[in-house]
Amino acid sequence: MPNKSNELCCDHGGKRNGCGRKPGVKTQPIRLPAWLLEQLIKEGDPRQLIIDACLSRFPSICNEGLDNND
Q: Which residues of the chain have pLDDT under 50?
């Protein structure tokens, strides 16, 4: 029985709009210290902040992912 709070997201079977990963996007779990994650959340979307920080520090990696849908 689905949880009422996330029923639309986690109902088993069928299409789930706005949930999960996009097809073809490769991910790897990375654990961050709780204090760092809390600070990132205060600033905005942690995932996007991490991506932005990586691209600003290593601009050459921006061109490496153009063909692989990541």
A: 1, 70
Distance CA 63, CA 43 (A): 26
Sign of CA dihedral 47, 52, 57, 63: positive
> What are the residues whose beta carbons fall under 8 Å from the beta carbon of 55, sequence distance 6 or more?
61, 62
Q: Which helix (H) or strand (E) holds 38?
A: helix 34-43
> Do 32 and 22 meet the contact criterion of CB atoms below 8 Å apart?
no
d(CA 56, CA 40): 16
pTM: 0.52
